[in-house]
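Assemble and predict.
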Amino acid sequence: MIKPQTFAVSAGQIILQGTALSCIRQDRVLFEQLDVSVRSGELLQIAGKNGAGKSSLLRILAGLAQADDGSLYYLQQPIAKVYADYAANLCYIGHHSGIHEQLTALENISFWRAASGIAPADDFALLATLGLAGLEDVPCRMLSAGQQRRVSLARLWFTNCQLWILDEPFTALDQVAIVMLQQHFFAHLQQGGAIILTTHQSLSVAFVHQSKLELAYRW
Amino acid sequence: MFKWLHPYAKPETVYQLCGRFYPWLIALGVVLLLVGNIWGLAFTPADYQQGDSYRIIHIHVPAAIMSMGTYSAMAIAAFIALVWQIKVAQWSVLAIAPVGAIYTAIALITGMAWGKPMWGTWWVWDARLTSELVLLFLYLGVIALSGAFSDRQTGAKAASLLAIVGVINLPIIHFSVEWWNTLHQGASLTKFAKPSIDPSMLWPLLISILAFKVIMLALVCLRLRTAILLNEQHRPWVKNLVEAQ
Amino acid sequence: MVMLGQFIKRELRLLARQKADWLNPLLFFVIVLCLFPLGVGPSPNLLRIMAPGIVWIAALLSVLLAAERLFKDDYRNGVIEQLVAARQPLLSFVLAKLFTNWLSTGLPLVLLSPVVALLLNIDAAGFVALLFTLLLGTPLLSLLGVMGAALTVSADKGGILLALLILPLYIPLLIFASAAMEAATTGMSYHGQLAIMLAMLLFALALIPLAVIGALKLNVS
């Protein structure tokens, strides 16, 4: 059985709420009657074994997949009614990086800037922050897995979306980058943002409002 | 109206309904088929021009009409599946497609068999035969696409989208093939264009058409039931059903 | 519009870096054209009769080949998934793909038409018709091919499935385009055929981008 362990704190408004969510994939019930919610200023960590349905849950929350049962609410409204608003306020970075190997770091970032409707800007400083100075014009297929992950996470430094849904953002990152990313999370939460992420790691930065949802592996 | 329809979209209800209708439909279909075909094949007068060979229309025409009708039924199910995201409708698309493909194949084969004594060859690029062949390709495309994904649900949705694209294209294809045919063929083949039919031949034909329709519905009921069980096998109601058996 | 411009720039960059993606289908087109005379014999009269069919079958096969890989990379590396989640940029993305796909596969066929006319012994009137039908027809080839590519992007079996789905949909275009060329070589007017091709193109232009978006969405779900 699943025991949703929510330590939800009543700080700020509930941004996204899912009630009684169920998901069946490939004839296997991943989870049933799952309640999940995230408030402004809150970081929600979803943990669980491989194959427990973490990514499937994130994809349902991001509106990519449909739950087999249950409903989703964005700011108390059924998601279908306010889908355009929700999608505009959501930054989803999935298991795959979302960067094209044939393009350079700069070109990938300017693509995502355009896709987010943000004016082009000087990205050299941003890449330097991410520890990619000197690699701006190298095609991403030449970068290491950790460096590619950094390019993909660069979106988080210019997006103006409130809700971030991140699937395993720490994969392949080194310790320095992990700490830097968590500090960036902290700043985002301070501003009233909200984050849902999956990870196996325990977070090293103490977030003010942090909750954890443990998905059990079901046969 | 949608409130009233909504409970009928529940897989369990559809499963029960299909189970209740199937025996009646299949019995009615078989009786109609026997009546229509025996009447048509044995008891109607021979054609003054074509002799006895015309009698194949009692299989050919119903199959051809229902191959088109089945495609539109599939497209309607596909439209419902995509617009209202109703899973039963998705599964119906996959339940209908093979039945339609078989009807199309029957229409093609009987059409060829009819063509042999009439035109002296098994295959002629006649407009209606060509359209029927293209229709078979469209059916096969839907079936192939539905099986091409590792996720059954994605396959069903993709097949639904293709069925809708197909039904928009079907009239365009049909008319372009007819136009192409009049461009390339002489008048020799158009004697079948609109055959006026004697009432004594018409009645058994209508009964056969109805029989094909009812049998199609029966087969779809059967296939849909299987699809529902396959896709809902982890739901409590299916487990109860199995335990009750 | 800014977004669309940026997206088109990105696609053009990718085309410049992955030249094989669009050069190989063109080469395929030319080779298929050369095989026909070898198969049916080089008699100029025979070639002139068969030219419309040969050109158009080669064209639709090569466009289909080029379309197949169109969404593969962006699907594999998660770009499409993230664009679907963001929803708003999806239309610009699809339009950019459609435009650059035609630019890299359809337009070169139009530019190659003099060579085609030379190889297949097409006369001046036929060449003009060939040019017009290719101009009107290749965008439609691209539209349908891109739709098929979007529909099968996450399918296990790629290329041959795409051909199975899309080739039947090409039939009307094949009929009217070859009929226009035939009419031209016999000195008849072919405005009617061109008008029908234009109508089909506009119809497809209105509906197919929506179908592509729907196909991409269901492939990431």
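Chain C has one domain: 2-220.
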